[in-house]
Amino acid sequence: MSVVSEETSEVLSMSTTASRSSPKTIFYISSALILPVLYVFFYTLQVWTKGSVIESWLKWDRLLIIAAIIVMERIYTYRYAVSQKAVLGRDIVANIVTIYLVYPATAMIVLPLLKFIPEHFLGRDLVFVSPDQLGPFWLQIVVIVLSVSFFRYWMHRLQHTNSFLWELHSYHHRTTDLKATNGGVSNPVDFALRNVIIFLILGMIGFDPYAILLAVTASNISGLFSHCGADVKGGILNYFFVTPEVHRWHHAVDVPKGYGYSCNYGVEFSFWDILFGTYYMPKQNGEFVMLPDERNYLKILLEPFGLYRPLTWFRHAK
Hints:
The protein is an all-alpha fold. Helices cover 62% and strands 0% of the residues. Helix 1 packs antiparallel against helix 9. The N and C termini lie far apart (92 Å).
């Protein structure tokens, strides 16, 4: 009897331990699956709403992604998270400016340039080839995504090595933690450098303007999720997309030895970093020390051009 009792007790003990560990296992697995699931969902959403992609992206699509990231940050709490309440006002203003001013302004400037200037500038046809000569629509999207991500990778590297470009870009790094709300904290000129020049080049080559818009809109999804502050696991995605795990190392103050100015420069895809030797993703996780927060959004806009300090003097003079 005692032997049976001991065996029964051991089985019950193992069952209890398994039942306790099961929720933790499920939670860990879900933290590894949540990113690919959301990537697929939002990519599908982009294709499904392609008829109104401009309106959807500028008004509610980005807000929906931000909301999804905020929910993730609440569920998968990062143990090294730093409170961003002190700069929430800056983040709200930055997102309003980016979503409702910078994005529409970029669309209003770039889309007409893509549509009319290449064909009618000084009576000359600046388009090298017609869209039909560049292959089927789906192939153009693939080529555009790769071209844009390649350009953004090198522009991003230049923004870390050139002193003036770093003045513009450095304010994007003035965040002590990655959060859903601070992905849009940057100088508008800094944004334009990565998102205007390449559009015009692709338009002059002759790519379909709608293919350009749809491709870049879809590729921006992983870039938006890179600022997720949740403790989610990228896994194999780390070698293809700029996941939060990958992007945290880019924002760290302590640059890994031998990596120069920074690492992980990819905006959407991390395979460019792997190809050009700037990829860094150690096995262990640790606390990331980042630059101190810059709370003043007006300073972010004006200081790189030397326009903020005179305003400060004027305020003191009064």
